[in-house]
Write a structure and sequence with these properties.
The protein is of the alpha+beta class. Helices cover 25% and strands 36% of the residues. The chain is globular.
């Protein structure tokens, strides 16, 4: 009986040691998994933060409005463009064919007083652009001192420096609407899609109002 009792106690001791040896690695593995999971979550949070911080602020548009116009004639859209974090440029504009046949980025310039008559032929400027009823005196006509004429020309781009505001206004840069499909009267709205050198685009709604 004594030998049997000793043998049983010896077996119990061996079993207990095996259990302790097995439990130790399992507990350690559990700690490692938690640490690894925690590290993954932290890395994910860091990446998200970097993405948010790295997103550049785009050009913002303020006070968009359009001139009234008659079907078959022209009109213009004006606004203020404020640069974002990086330099950009307005490179194009587009409107629905239900509004006008074409939209172009234009600049009003002063022509020299000794300009030859050939430079003012109707082939260079659409008849709609030459009609005072379609465009205000700020966009076309004499400067009041007999020094020349104001005229408009299409431009490839309008620079928008970072953080600065560039005005599209009568007598300067503007978006020309050529060949209006229907009358634009005060209170109407016109949607125009702006394209920027950065590749971004922005849809803007301009209200028709008197200059």
């Amino acid at each position: 009986m004594l030998n049997t009792s000793r043998t049983a106690r010896r077996r119990l001791a061996v079993a207990g040691a095996l259990l302790l040896a097995t439990a130790g690695p399992l507990a350690a593995c559990g700690d490692d998994d938690e640490d690894a999971s925690s590290g993954t979550d932290a890395a994910s949070e860091d990446t998200t933060s970097q993405d948010d911080a790295g997103e550049a602020v785009a050009v913002t548009v303020g006070d968009p409005w359009a001139r009234p116009g008659t079907a078959g004639g022209n009109s213009a859209i004006y606004m203020e463009l404020t640069g974002g974090d990086e330099d950009d440029a307005l490179v194009g504009a587009e409107v629905s064919e239900a509004v006008a046949t074409d939209a172009q980025v234009h600049e009003t310039v002063m022509e020299s007083g000794d300009m030859g008559s050939g430079e003012m032929e109707s082939g260079d400027m659409g008849s709609g652009e030459m009609e005072s009823g379609d465009m205000g005196s700020g966009d076309m006509g004499s400067d009041g001192e007999g020094n020349g004429m104001m005229s408009m020309q299409e431009v490839e781009s309008v620079a928008i420096p970072a953080g600065e505001t560039v005005a599209l206004e009568p007598g300067g840069y503007h978006i020309m609407l050529l060949g209006l499909t229907e009358d634009l009267v005060v209170g109407d709205t016109v949607e125009v899609e702006l394209s920027f050198e950065s590749g971004a685009s922005q849809r803007v709604t301009a209200e028709v109002r008197e200059p």
